[in-house]
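User: Predict the structure for this protein chain, please.
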Amino acid sequence: MTELIKVINLDKLDLNPKKKNVCAYARVSTASDTQLNSFTYQVSTYTNEILNNPNWNFIAVYADEGISGTGLKKRNQFNMMLTAANHGLIDLILTKSISRFARNTIDCLKTIQDLKRIGVEIYFEKENISSFDPGIEFVISVLSGMAEEESRTISENVKWGNTKRFENGIFHMVTKRVLGYEHDLHGQIIINEHEASTVKKIYEMFLEGYGSTPIIKYLEDNNIKSPLGNTHWNKSAIYGILKNEKYTGNAMLQKTYRPSFKSNDKVINNGALPKFYVLNSHPAIISIDMFDEVQALRKQKSLKYHKSDMKDLNIAFSKETPYTGLIHCPHCGKSFNMKTNKIGSDFACRYLQCSTNKLQKKCISETISCHVIDQQIIQQINLIIQNKNHFIKCLTEALNSDIRIIQAKSDLNQTQAKIEAIESKLELIKDSIDEFHQTVLSQLDKDLYELKITEAMITNKLITEMNVDAFILEIKQILKPHQKPVSMLSEFPYKSLFSKIIIQSRDQIIFVVGMRNDYKNIKITGSLYLSGVVSCNIRKTAFQSTHGILFY
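Assistant: Here is the predicted structure, written as structure tokens:
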């Protein structure tokens, strides 16, 4: 009988197999303390797991916390991980389970297919499944669908449970948000007499003819704090108190609901679900007669100030504006809000005002016309488009010069030097068998492991929070489609390009581009990059407003 001999193709024999570049993705569903502890645990666990595998190179632990998992839009770290994978930096992604990775079947399958196409594997620990396994798409489709259905079922069960509790008159009042009430040691709702006196005063002043502005002035002048403990009040807090039926000792339940388990936004319940009115559910602060009188007066005032042109009214009071979350006040740190004067008239004008000055002038910041800021945004965008390559070069240099990144890289180098020194010592005494050297070996092994954890944590920070390359790539992708100047704000995603716009004064507007968000520490020294000037008028006085870019 002929002996079979195995022939090895030396060309295909890899004597030094390449280590896999491995990262992990962790996510928790809510921002509760318990989940946050779980989040920290996941990050440290994955770091240890990857470092302890000799065939793996640690890349990073990407992690999103406190947000919904039914979509990918708000999962910044997840999207950053996909970008790294697309650039060949990742071979394997570890994740706890399919439900932690994605609860939307379509997104899950697309992500798996896209990564599989470029040779990146995902390993789901709970299900013990690899995205490289045959028939994985069918399994993932079923399991992802189950995870999505689980979200829907939980949502429906919560709704059902709430409805059943409400039917029995059982509800929980978050007294931290309701001025005048607190819980006793047994969890019962009781009146906080000090806060209740404020509630009564608000009702009395309103019935005496005072509007929200003088009521707010009275409260702030007397150092009375809002329901959330703030020294400043706003109109919504006043009217929230005036229309809250709970101050009568009764409770209207299920006033709002979430229309879909995929949505985080609540809508007013106009009959989609049953409402429940619980009588005498807790002690009353305001009599029903006083409450009804206030509601009648509120309705009367509402009709008086009601405008026929609802379109203009909606624009004036819309929560979302072209400037929401973008305009920053350097003096008090608050945001600027859009206001509209003379709504519905031919003389209506939009302007931006520091939110601190909403009721009375407390901040030294000046108002600025929306027409002016719009011109400046468009002009700044066009200057960037015209100088695209130089802009990218200067931005890259500025970000790499950030003291945080320089310090992190220095810490990493020092840690790596310590690791090399210990490894050299270990190499010298690794064959020693006496008790003394064995004790030294044990301590050195411990020190080495702790240093490698430190190295991994710093590396992770540089790859996630301080990843200049990823940020520059994102900016390039924003600018790539735009070759010609724009003429309207809607033509360009300026909120993605500028992290903040600082209104230093009417004469100087600063456009911030960068990865940091500690705007209180911004120091403006020297000239701004790609500066420009917009000419405008305030009433009949002409003036010029300069603008430019600050990399931060």
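Confidence is low (pLDDT under 50) at residues 30-37, 67-73, 307-318.
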